[in-house]
Specification:
The protein is α/β, with parallel strands linked by helices and 213 residues long. Helices cover 35% and strands 19% of the residues. It contains 6 helices and 7 strands, in the order H-E-E-H-E-E-H-E-H-E-H-E-H. Helix 1 packs across helix 6. The radius of gyration is 16 Å and the shape is globular. The protein starts with 5 loop residues before the first helix and ends with a helix. The relative contact order is 0.20. Belongs to the TRAFAC class TrmE-Era-EngA-EngB-Septin-like GTPase superfamily. EngB GTPase family. Its cofactor is Mg(2+). This is Probable GTP-binding protein EngB. It comes from Brevundimonas denitrificans. Keywords: Cell cycle, Cell division, GTP-binding, Magnesium, Metal-binding, Nucleotide-binding, Septation.
Amino acid sequence: MDDFTPEELEQARILFARPATFVMGCAKIEQLPDPDLPEVAFAGRSNVGKSSLINGLVGMHKLARASNEPGRTREVNFFDLDGKMRLVDLPGYGWAKASKSTVKKFQDLGRDYLRGRVTLKRVYLLIDARHGLKKVDDEALDALDLAAVSYQIILTKADKLKKGEAEKVQTETLKAVSKRGAAYPAVIVTSAEKGDGMPELRAEIMRTTGVTL
């Protein structure tokens, strides 16, 4: 994991404590907001904890809405952080209940966003720490490599593991993506529930976007 100075961690804490608001959900590529702010996007399997992570980053319970229905996020959702950057919630993948035509429609939307968004600084691919990388994640990794977008693996729900297990999954995950050209060579272990890894992720995002206070 990258090393952050106490100053960087504090600056990131202050930034993410500022107002965050829902901007819009886009079902078509033509609906995307103007690319006038740096953006970071969050992707991952359905039920990996994207909404919880986004809410945890900004210290709000209901900014991003979690759902018990897998695959409900079928739009690209944009959140504004104090007019300085946007957090983007991409449609989930890996669900079984949605029809193939529906799945393809919002997977294509996500791919179109990845390919054409000039202000996109990094995609954070969320992986459940209890399961690690699975075959269903390969398609997402391939799509990110194809789009040549910088992406970084974030392990979620680390509080569900026994002590030491998260570090093992972290090492295995980093090794698995080490040969992928677009993968950023650091894996952050997080728990939205306990707050673990969140200060480092905030600092990582602030550094990646180049946003300053």
